[in-house]
Amino acid sequence: MSLRVADGIVDPDHAHGVVDSDHARLHELGYKQELKRDLSMISNFAISFSIVSVLTGLNGLMGTGLNFGGPISYIYGWPIAGTFTMLIGLSMAEICSSYPTSGGLYYWSAKLAGPNWGPFASWITGWFNIVGQWALTTSIDFSLAQLVQVMILLSTGGLNGGGYMISKYIVMALHGVFLLIHAILNSLPISMLSFLGQIGAACNFFGCFLMIVIPAVATERASPEFVFTNFNTENQDGINNYFYIFVLGLLMSQYTLTGYDASAYMSEETKDADKNGPQGIVSAIGIAVIAGWAYVLGITFAVRDIPNLLSENNDSGGHAIAQIYYEAFMSRYGSGVGAVICLGIAGLAVFFAGMSSLTSNSRIAYAFSRDGAMPFSSQLQKVNKQDVPINAVWMSALVAFCMALTSLGSLVAFQAMTSIATIGLYVAYAIPILLRLTLGRKTFTRGRFNLGRYGTIVGWISVLWVALISVLFSLPVSYPITDQTLNYTPVAVGGVLILVVLTWIFSGRHWFKGPIKNIDDSSKEEA
Questions:
Q1: Are residues 315 and 326 in contact, defined by beta-carbon separation less than 8 angstroms?
Q2: Fewer CB under 10 Å: which end of the chain, C or N?
Q3: Up-side HSE of residue 332: CA atoms within 13 Å toward CB?
Q4: Where are the bilayer-spanning segments (predicted)?
Q5: In the chain, what are the domains?
Q6: Angstrom distance (rounded) from CA 389 to CA 142
Q7: Does the bond joining 480 to the residue before it have cis omega, within 30 degrees of 0?
Q8: Residues 449-481 pLDDT 10s
């Protein structure tokens, strides 16, 4: 991988004129500077790293890993998923360096597909991306509400000690409150949001290593043999094939590693964006993989009785990580207060993940509206006096709230809705990478961050991995298959695809022409 200045990219060390190199490059791409460019590489990285949020994904999905394969599925599955995710991130970073705009993936697709296919590619990528982003925010804030539910249960005695389990309606209300707070925070200037994002990244990073002390608290610990060789094949889901079990357990890791594309959407607010944006993507993945593996490795030493951790009748109501914490502190101190405090620390990391996710949502909504692709585009593309796309912020929060309303009717429907967060995002990740390898292979100009001769092979591996996990995410996770056990992921994703294609055929193709320049040629020459 090399870092060099390619044709068409302005070297910031030699930039002169009225505007700096970032403004000049944005002008070349057809846009005027409307958002405040105040983010450093660290700030850009912090937003993506907070959204990836190892503590959010692994804490919420630990039960899946324990159920399907146990320690082997995530101790070894995590680095496998992490390696392929890094390849995807490197491919995306290379394209981001060439096109550092808030439009991100859909802008890349438009340019790489060429004038004939560009509008359609942009339309598909953009809608999969933004729907996936909304689903991700919904999932994060709803998981935070559920975490509070478990904290209240354990702090009042646990399920078997007369503890209080708040209702699904209160969980929904908490979800709304968190979204409201996040929308308020996202209405602040980007400099304030940058500071909060760095706090969130620190909470996620140090929280992972702080939780590793849990085994030290426990009076009984798992043996190294259990941690590195135990393969749990005893699930209640009718799945007996060992490879199938491992694959389903692997998905816990892949579910967690999403959201790093946020660094691309923050490009128009990042200094030296064609270098710092790509580095934000890659560093967010790299540090998340390291911190996440340390976390799952450490916490597994506190795992004792897998069936009890997964039982809905345990003190945490079936929340595996909470039960691990609770059993560790109860065994040594006879009290679960320490467990509640640890869950609170994890909850703080989840809170900042939700805040950063909404930031990412608003920027892609702003950019997509700037190009006229969304309903009410003229309103959603507006920025306030603090250079914040305020309408896009509050619209995204409202959509995330509405998506969670499905949980009141059926958790199965809600899980289908939020499954789009993974498949939808990874489909959006893969489209521009595939286009860069096919239709755009002769026209793509590498930016300062590029993979050199390795770009093609890394790109193809990335596309094939996304195709593979898209199939794996759609496999049945329980037998026999009923309306309650059916994996609705392909139904949800297929529904989005059908809706997006139909709206293109009957409407979008008549007026959407892809990214629209909002700066005239004279302004570009002046810049």
A1: yes
A2: N
A3: 17
A4: 41-62, 74-100, 144-163, 169-188, 195-218, 242-260, 281-303, 333-353, 392-414, 420-439, 451-475, 487-507
A5: 36-510 (1.20.1740.10)
A6: 24
A7: yes
A8: 999 999 999 999 999 999 999 998 888 888 888
